[in-house]
Amino acid sequence: MGDDDTYITELRERLGLAGFIDVHTHFMPDRVLRKVWAYFDAAGPLIARPWSIAYRDAEQVRLKTLRGFGVRAFTSLVYPHKPEMAAWLNDWSADFAARTPDCLHTATFFPEPEAAGYVESAIEAGARIFKVHIQVGDFHPADPLLRPVWGMLSEAGVPVLVHCGSGPTAGRFTGPGPIAELLRHFPSLRLIVAHMGAPEYTEFLDIAAQYPQVHLDTTMNFTDFFESADPFPTAERARLSELGDQILFGSDFPNIPYSYGHALYALDRLDLGDDWLRKVCHDNAARLFEL
Fold first, then answer.
1. Which residues does the UniProt record annotate as the domain Amidohydrolase-related (predicted)?
2. How many CB atoms are located within 10 Å of the residue 258 CB?
3. Which of 83, 123, 269, 289 has the fewest CB atoms in 10 Å of its CB?
4. What would the pLDDT profile of 145-166 be if each residue is shown by its tens digit?
């Protein structure tokens, strides 16, 4: 791949893009992010393997780094692990978006009686994307407390990025089953399946094929780090082209154990063509978020 910065610049120029759109990046309140980093450092039970944070810097340094890679739009994915946390995270994310124009205003929720109220407020305040982490939150996405939330999000057409695959470790409610149940109730939901649903790749590809408004993000997929643990099945490679309009680039910046350039190179080396790569790295997200 050569020098990381040089490769990224050359790739962007080759694709004829003014910049990339990264739908899966994390900016959080400092004390929350430091707890997340500490969890990764300790290789906590939801990770279960050594994981070194590549971009462990102050917020403004991280923003400068991401923009330096040519990223023109990104997210501030936050997620609660307990009740009475989501509304506070939403307040922080709204302030972050207000002072960071290239960040898509991000929000989140948790199954609790107050969820419908603060989700409605977030939508009215201009939230462009919501993040849900089934593994960390340890809840069923079709929890009755979330029915009014999903109804609002479906009607508003706001995308929801969901970590619902069973990687790195399975949770009680991870896997394709709960998401398939959710979509039976709310078939027009604009879900974005994080990590392409790893390791249940085939099942989540099936869901995307059934629901054209469902997208898959490439966060960590096809990298050496992910392929060593949850390799994408060779037999499914052709479907990456077939569903090329529903695949979005995501990096997991800054919480990745390798360079940002490697995340892009992992897609480039699939040899699916520049048209496919251009859609994944920019055009699909630009269409979804009307950028």
1. 21-291
2. 17
3. 269
4. 999 999 999 999 999 999 999 9
